[in-house]
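Lab notes, practical 5.
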Amino acid sequence: MSADEPSISGELVLPPDSCIIDGKGEFVASGVTSLVELFPNGDIIKTPRDNPFRYCVQDLSTEARIYQMLGEHPRLVKIRNWDSTEHTMVMEYMPHGTLKQYIKTHYEDVSRPLQLQWARQAAEGLQLLHAFDILHCDVGPHNFLLDASLNLKIADFGGSSINGSYASVCPGSRYRAPDPEWRPGKPPSSNEDLFALGSVLYFIFTGKVPFSELEEDEVASQYKAEVFPDLSEVLCSDIITLCWQQRAGSARQIYETISRLCVTGNV
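Output from the prediction step:
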């Protein structure tokens, strides 16, 4: 025990939302909220981290509540079990990892039809959330997972907003809408999710994050000035523009528009 760890009678005292993690399987990933491990049977388990800067147990409980609200859907990872006592969640494993990882390593091999499929599925996943008054609040390629058939599933709802509740996360600067009226505690809006969706679509079609040549703070300044990356040769440029200008309407409208493009091939 280090000298700065709190103790009573020589015993370590943890914050009330913390847990001590015993290894349950093969390590897969570790985020700010949870540790992800792979079971021998092919499922994964998410266990809340001991993170003094996050209410990790609360975040996992929020995620479980959202899954219970949404039920099963093709755009959602299947939940095998939620243990409300241990605050652990067992889920199906997504063998191709995140959209972010996959595009970084396989972009040159991704066909135009597959790009359009991912764009449509990303919008479909977001419109499912919005239909239940849930705002994701951290839409990005790191929070879309790919199954064995390379179908896209939206994931990670621990910091999301339900019915206008406080969101404990926000997107990175390349996925964050500029908001001159922002203030601490301001409720999130669907336009913020849709702005981020525009950046996800840009990433899908170009293999690059918006303004990949700029530093994070420079990106925020460009967005604030309503300056966006060139879209002259980017698929679905009109949709991305509407998202970035916060005039997209709804995730359902984006989903329906991309669905028509997938059918007609008129891109």
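Observations recorded by the TA: The domain at 99-264 is CATH 1.10.510.10 (Transferase(Phosphotransferase); domain 1). The longest helix spans residues 112-131.
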